[in-house]
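Consider this pair:
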Amino acid sequence: MRVLSILLITFFLFSCSEKQEKPEQLISNFSTSEIDQKVESIMSNMTMDEKLAQIQGIRPMEIMTDGKISLEKCREMIPHGIGHFSQFSSGLTMEPSELRDFVRSVQNYLMTETNSKIPAIFHEEAITGFATQGATTFPQQIGMGCSWNEELISKNTNSTRLNMRAAGATYALSPMLDISRTAHWERIEESYGEDAYLTSALGLAFVNGLQGEDLSSGVACTTKHFAGYGAQNNDPKELYEEYLMPHEVAIKLGGVKSVMPSYGKYKGMAVVANKEMLTTMLRDQVGFNGVVVSDYGSIRLTYKGHKQAKTMVEAGAMALNAGTDIELSEGQCFPLLPEAIQQNLTTLEKVNDAVRRSLIMKARLGLLDEKPQIGVDGELDFDPPVNRELAYESACQSIVLLKNNGILPLKKDIKKVALVGPNAASVYGMLGDYTYQSMISFWWSTKFDANNPKLVPLSEGLASKLGDNVIIQHERGCDWSAPLESKVEAGMGDDRLSKLKVMAIEGLPQPDLDNALKISKESDVIVAAVGENIYLVGEGRKRKGIKLPGEQEAFVEKLIATGKPVVLVIMGGRQQLVSKFEDKCAAIVQAWFPGEEGGNAIADILVGNVNPTAKLCVTYPSNESKKEINYKNGYSKDNQPQYPFGFGLSYTNYEYSDLKMETFANVKDERIPLSFKVKNIGKVDGTEIVQLYVSPKSETSTLNKIQLEGFKRVELKAGEEKTVTFKVSPQQFTQYKNGEWVIEPENFEFLIGASSTDIRLKSDLELKGKRKVLKNGRSVFFSERN
């Protein structure tokens, strides 16, 4: 589950790939003969109603009265059992032990009162931790993308696994592996950024931690959204080579057995009902043999939204025929499948296939054992000290220092600090979408408890780190946004946003601009905490642009006009424009949504207790253009980024030297070795994220102009030097052309850099040999490094 495991797996896959005859051999079997026999025995006694129940979900509220399970409602709503309880905890306000007892009560009903006696899968979101009250809230995924730290991500998701299993949950609708290349997309915050290689590596680390060594004690991951969601085009080459890659890695190397199609379309057809994408691409070409679950309401959307199905009956049949096995969040179209069979729109065999896969998954999770373990006994704590330490370390490693004229770390002789801005003392700028707090407040209009788990705002963190000798004066100065800055997508409930806005400012005084400017003029330094909050970004929440929302941009300019140094701390779920005043700020810190320990982490970076290490997993734009911006084809002269992919500053400096590598290699070679030295030439300890890029020399090459092909976090004490080694596989240059995966001989430039544009070392390599066709597709995705 650590970096070493990735290297061992990739080495194993490469070394055995030439012997493989089928793509299925790349992945562990979904079932066993013992499981098959058990499932067939169960299915032989099931009625159609009982089968249909296993391939749909239900919300827990549907079987509850006054916040507790109602057996009467269970008998009414799920008399034949149920496949899934959808997002079962993120809409509830139960304490951990209470939640476990609720799950046990529901499972007891299913196992004792229904004819099939099959337990349900309780699934939840998990990109920032278990989405339930009291559980550790980690930084949003885009922030973790900037950590470039697979080991830390695996530790985080392992802690999530333990929490979910303790409550009786066995399934996660995570990770989100969409590659995101425009800050205008409201869901970019859920991604690991713009690069296929980095997203694949971090996504695999996520899977390894959450699924554990075996699904019988792990939590099944669901990769979403398959495939190309959020992209602006459907170019097959880009789709196969890049957008598909993170899912393929999670399936082939991580053993993922659950995939969620996107809400989007491919070649004009809704993905959830797209046979080419879900059967040909996913199952036949990638070799996936698990369960495909629909995104919430997406099957119905083929009828009501996309208008590709004439009826709900047809919508269900189209999705089932294409390869979707389970309808979530609730049964709307799949309960009508008997009608679809009667109308010759689908077959009983396809229904049985979906039911079979659903039951195999339950068997793999241990739910079909004679005495399945549902939760863990005793009093539960979902945010123990070890988890909070992980949350703190994650926040520290997710925060990117974008600019620093020497003001940071804050000097010891500072006496007065003005802490201003809408995110200075609020927890609403610390929480990404699909955190428990965001979900219950936006989707269910229920206020969350900021002390369960304890959320540390910047004001609290800075006060504790600066101590009593420094006077901190605080004033918001402005609100997050103007009334019309954001809106909710049609059909999601127009009043959700207004209710959430009220919650965010409840109990706060009106912002006082004059006082903010007054205390700023009196200070030695201004810390301006600006940006977004959970109602300005996230699924279903759209903004007009990507500047600082509302009056915040003008507010920052007024702060700069005081003449005092401004340290800009930006929170939010996307890159936000700073080009108007970037040159006038003393420092800029991109904190994203840093989670429960965000205030302590930001403060420790500001005062120098922590040396920042994070580097951008996205390109930081310099204008409002909605066109995708991505480092892979180079940045054009008329669209230079504010900050490039891979960029991030430190409180020390690093020197690269002594690159050693061969000048020739063959397409049949297993690995191409290279090594170089990196030295910390500053006065403080630090960690450098070294990056390996490869660029084709020919102008006519069909490969990306520059492509990340390796990275490593290198911890270095002041003055220390280390040698870093990469071993690159020719399979990393595989291209999808005319329906084939091929490696073509050509000349490359290998680039070692501190970012995609800060290249420190270069060397040429000629890849010789004959064009090689990979009949079973690619099997090696990453370079080895040590």
